[in-house]
């Protein structure tokens, strides 16, 4: 990966209690492949934070890849079956 640039597209924070919070954000990372071709990865990240004593820390994380662009542009109709 050459010349990567991390871009947050959306971010959300939910405060669950004085000692717990959840962050969810979507991102994209445009970059060049080793052959110099433009490429991009994208997805979503969710982090659960907890305060233990005086320190905050991540107690759970989850990463999801964005679906391929073709999946997003192909509309489903009533003849298509879910797998």
Summarize the structure.
This protein is mostly beta strands. It has one domain: Nuclear Transport Factor 2, Chain: A. The protein contains one helix and four strands.
Which SSEs are present, and which pair or pack?
Elements lengths: L6 E11 L2 E13 L5 E15 L2 E11 L3 H5 L10
Antiparallel strand pairs: 1-2, 2-3, 3-4
Tally the structural domains: 1
Q: Largest sheet at a glance?
A: 4 strands, antiparallel
Q: What's the end-to-end separation, in Å?
A: 33 Å
Shape: elongated
Please give the count of helices: 1
Strand content: over 45%
CATH fold title? Nuclear Transport Factor 2, Chain: A
What is the CA-based Rg, rounded? 18 Å
- CATH C-level name: Alpha Beta
* Biggest sheet: strand arrangement: 1-2-3-4
Please state the average pLDDT score: 86
Helix content: under 10%
The SS-based structural class is: mainly beta
CATH architecture identity: Roll
What attributes does this structure have?
mainly beta, Nuclear Transport Factor 2, Chain: A, single chain
Structure description:
The chain has one helix at 69-73, and strands spanning 7-17, 20-32, 38-52, 55-65. It is mainly beta and 83 residues long. It has a single domain, classed as Nuclear Transport Factor 2, Chain: A (Roll), CATH 3.10.450.50. Strands 1-2-3-4 form a four-stranded antiparallel β-sheet, with no helix packed on it. Residues 70-77 have low confidence and may be disordered.
